[in-house]
Design brief:
Blueprint: H1 3-10, H2 17-23, E1 35-38, H3 43-46, H4 50-61, E2 67-73, E3 76-81, H5 83-92, E4 109-113, H6 128-143, E5 147-151, H7 160-171, H8 174-179, H9 182-198, H10 201-214, H11 218-242, H12 259-268, E6 272-275, E7 278-281, E8 291-294, H13 302-317, E9 321-325, H14 331-343, E10 352-355, E11 360-361, H15 377-395, H16 402-419, E12 427-428, H17 431-434, H18 442-459, H19 475-485, H20 487-497, H21 501-520, H22 528-552
Parallel strand pairs: 4-5, 4-9, 9-10, 11-12
Antiparallel strand pairs: 1-3, 2-3, 6-7, 7-8
Helix pairs in contact: 1-2, 5-19, 7-9, 7-10, 10-11, 12-13, 15-16, 18-21, 18-22, 19-21, 20-21, 21-22
């Protein structure tokens, strides 16, 4: 809080406001200061010792109305804010159900490519990260005033569909596929690969069927459409549970007629080269292998479609940024894609980002849908909901809407588990970890929200004055106050760094601070002014926790 105002007050011809704002930091020990400015990095520019710089800057902040005092400790300028001013800002969060909004994104469009499920394959735990990280970023950017376009770039093209047609014709029927679900399709896919190991000629048959799909053959298209319909019917149910929405489902097949103009641009610029019958863009001078765009047999690739998609998205949405939430396994692919687009003089080349995240593996090794080694996401969600329901029945058996609450708690726990760590961290999936509802988890935050709601209901009051602000500015109260006020900064940081974990960690931290305050201070007391201030702070905390949970795609519960 107040970073930009401090930076402006401390800046001059030699130190820019941006340099100062980047250097400001919160001390690990809150007793040392509300915010601190290490002056060591400015010594070279100003040619003065850090303590002298800190002393010179001290005079510039002491007159600011939100600063109580400033102290020089070594090379640090430690700044303490006026508690009454900060508390009033916190209490203002009680007056709005949505906290920390901004207009910084006004007039700017951000495209986010996330989830991107593969047709004919069920959701497994490996799809969770891209789906909930992308969904959280979608909501965070909207919260900050951006126009956001959520894109599900469906994996709906490739030889695997020829394989599924072969499998369906050999061991099933189109009618049976239409009656069944995505797990049935996957079982056919797994069986195909086992059989093809002994009968490799099946792959030739699969390629022939996929060629018929490419050519628009009616019989092949019937199978292809059935696979898509069955898959989308199933994944829509999972998306509903995860609170995930999209503005576009334009997948790979959508770009079939949009690749030729892009290839023509590459040819005209002399970038497309022949290599053993294939067409590539050579990238060796940029430290990368060639980007393969057309195979020797004339088939296009994922990269070809991504180039066409980039042109379509720029033309359609005129994006400010285009983000791809895809695992770091695809680092090379996106480096190649962005470099090829840059060489093509594509207008949005500098505005495209790969938002990489870590891989999910099983405790005994990597997952493989082809070999049937997977953990289905539906099973994980169901088990989490089942555990939540058993806890509810044990602790609060008479609560209304038990099944609905269990769904919110269980699914919320799974979503939060994927949004708690920095996204680049690899995850070894463990049911024990995902089903642990204690400590730094969504159920803990949901419980704290419900505690706030309960206190407000018990008060019987609907309108709250600021009251006696000194009753919320002691050590415990002031920590809550600061956490409410700085929530918006965490949201902006989450957007800037593309890291939803800044929101999840903030609301866990706020929940912990409020619970300590709640235990040490009675909320509903006889003194009207004290009661009013504490109830209003409780409402501010409630609004902030709800906002944070909703940004992550998790329900805030009035009762638990």
């Amino acid at each position: 809080m107040f970073e930009s105002e401090l930076a402006k007050a401390l800046s001059d011809a030699q130190l820019t406001a941006e340099e100062i704002e980047c250097a400001l930091e919160a001390p690990k020990d809150a007793k040392l200061a509300d915010i601190s400015l290490p002056c060591f990095k400015f010594s070279r520019t100003l040619r003065l010792p850090p303590p002298v710089i800190a002393q010179n800057l001290k005079e510039r902040v002491e007159g600011l109305d939100f600063v109580e005092r400033a102290e020089v400790v070594g090379g640090y300028l430690n700044i303490f804010f006026d508690k009454q001013t900060v508390a009033k800002l916190a209490l203002a969060a009680a007056d709005t159900p949505v906290v920390g909004t901004s207009t910084e994104g006004e007039g700017k469009t951000i495209c986010i490519d996330y989830s991107s499920v593969n047709i004919a394959k069920p959701f497994h735990i490996g799809h969770l990260s891209t789906t909930v990280i992308g969904g959280a970023l979608y909501r965070i950017f909207k919260h900050l005033g951006y126009k956001v376009v959520g894109i599900n770039h469906l994996g709906d093209w490739g030889t695997q569909f020829g394989k599924l047609i072969v499998a369906t014709r050999k061991w099933s029927s189109l009618e049976e596929v239409e009656r069944n679900d995505e797990y049935f399709l996957n079982s056919l896919y797994v069986r195909y690969h086992k059989e093809a190991e002994e009968h490799p000629e099946m792959d030739d048959e699969a390629r022939a069927w996929f060629k018929r799909i490419e050519d628009g053959d009616k019989e092949a298209t019937k199978y292809f459409d059935a696979f898509k319909e069955v898959t989308m019917r199933a994944v829509s149910k999972v998306y509903d549970r995860l609170k995930i929405t999209f503005d576009s489902y334009a997948g790979e097949s959508f770009y079939n007629d949009k690749m030729t103009p892009c290839l023509d641009i590459l040819k005209d610029k002399g970038l497309l080269k022949e290599s053993d019958g294939a067409m590539v863009v050579e990238l060796d001078e940029y430290g990368m292998p060639p980007c393969l765009l057309v195979k020797a047999d004339g088939a296009t690739l994922y990269a070809t479609r991504d180039i066409a998609a980039a042109y379509f998205r720029k033309q359609t949405y005129d994006f400010f940024k285009c983000l791809y939430v895809v695992a770091y396994q695809q680092n090379l692919h996106f480096k190649q894609l962005f470099k090829v687009l840059e060489l093509m003089d594509f207008a949005g080349a500098k505005d495209m980002e790969h938002i990489a995240f870590g891989m999910v593996s099983m405790e005994d090794g990597a997952m493989s849908t082809r070999n049937g080694r997977v953990i289905w996401l539906k099973e994980v969600l169901d088990r989490a909901v089942e555990k939540a329901k058993s806890i509810i029945e044990n602790k609060n058996p008479n609560i209304k809407d038990k099944d609905k609450i269990a769904e919110s708690v269980g699914v919320g726990a799974v979503v939060f588990s994927a949004l708690w760590n920095n996204r680049i961290k690899d995850i070894v999936f463990s049911y024990d970890k995902v089903l642990n509802f204690d400590g730094e988890t969504a159920p803990y935050v949901q419980y704290t929200y419900a505690r706030c709601a309960s206190a407000l209901r018990k008060s019987g009051e609907a309108n709250f004055e600021d009251g006696d602000i000194s009753s919320i500015t002691d050590a415990e109260g002031y920590e809550v106050v600061k956490s409410v006020v700085t929530f918006g900064e965490s949201v902006r940081l989450a957007a800037k760094l593309r890291e939803p974990c800044y929101v999840s960690r903030h609301i866990v931290d706020l929940a912990g601070k409020f619970n300590r305050f709640y235990i040490d201070h009675r909320i509903i007391v006889d003194d009207k002014d004290v009661r009013s201030a504490r109830l209003k702070l409780t409402l501010a905390v409630k609004n902030t926790l709800r906002t944070g949970l909703n940004l992550l795609g998790i329900d805030a519960l009035e009762e638990m």
